[in-house]
Amino acid sequence: MDNSYWYPFTFLKDNKPSGVHVDIVTMALKASGYDLYTIKSGPWRRCLKEAQFGMADAVMTASYKPERADYLYYPEDAQSSSPSKWRVSQVGYSAVLLPGANFNGNMSHLPQPVYVPHGYSIGDDIKKSGVTVDSTFYSDLRNFNRLNKLRKGSLVTITTLAQAFLRKNPSYQMVIYPKEIKSKSYFLAFSKKSFLSPSEQQAIWEKIRLIRKKELNNIMVKYVK
Questions:
Q1: pTM
Q2: Residue 164 falls in which region: left (phi positive, over 0), alpha (psi -120 to 50) or beta
């Protein structure tokens, strides 16, 4: 899993994997009969590389990208524009702006540069609108600091992280655009070099579906107050 602060979905607490996605996946693994496993954290691009070369069985959690599908197995409906049946969860993205920014919800009008963590698929989505994306840094927290220091441009991050960060840091004087600009399904995506068979992978995805449907609200309450 990514070692960046991706609250409340994946993050490190006391150097241990934590978050909504961690809870759902670990519950699904346990329900599928897997008692021995390791969740390793690291920079996102390294996570993807380790899955690509068979050093990890899966990445937690990844949105669908065609180039990732060259080395990762996704559920069969991962490419759908609708939320996937086997997603770990649906994640919304918002634009974070400086006060007075002229933005009407049109992605091509996002104040530039748009700060997005290095290697994140949302950056590729935004580039399609023709705006300049700055992916120098690997974490959303560094991007908040950069926008606050330079007072130019905007950033795009997951809505819940933006809300939590700005509640704790009111001095940053930023605003969240009231309408989310993107919503994406995120998956436990399996390495094509994993020893888990397709049927074993599908069984885990099905446990994820059942746990998300039954337990997501209870799990979210633990992290979002």
A1: 0.89
A2: alpha
DSSP at 154? E
CA max distance for the chain: 53
pLDDT per residue of the chain (225 residues) written in tens, 0 to 9: 999 999 999 999 999 999 999 999 999 999 999 999 999 999 999 999 999 999 999 999 999 999 999 999 999 999 998 999 999 999 999 999 999 999 999 999 999 999 999 989 999 999 999 999 999 999 999 999 999 999 999 999 999 999 999 999 999 999 999 999 999 999 999 999 999 999 999 999 999 999 999 999 999 999 876
Distance CA 200, CA 219 (A): 25
Burial 54-86 (b: 16+ CB within 10 A, else e): eebbbbbbbbbbeebeebbbbbeebeeeeebbb
In whole angstroms, give the CA distance from residue 36 to residue 57.
13
Instruction: Give the whole-angstrom CA distance, residue 208 versus residue 27.
Output: 8
Write the CB contacts of 53 (distance below 8 Å, at least 6 apart in sequence): 193
* Cα distances (Å, whole numbers) of residue 167 to 79, 95, 164: 34, 16, 5
State the helix-helix crossing angle for 198-223 and 20-31, rounded to 10 degrees. 140
Residue where the block lists tokens 């991962």: 78
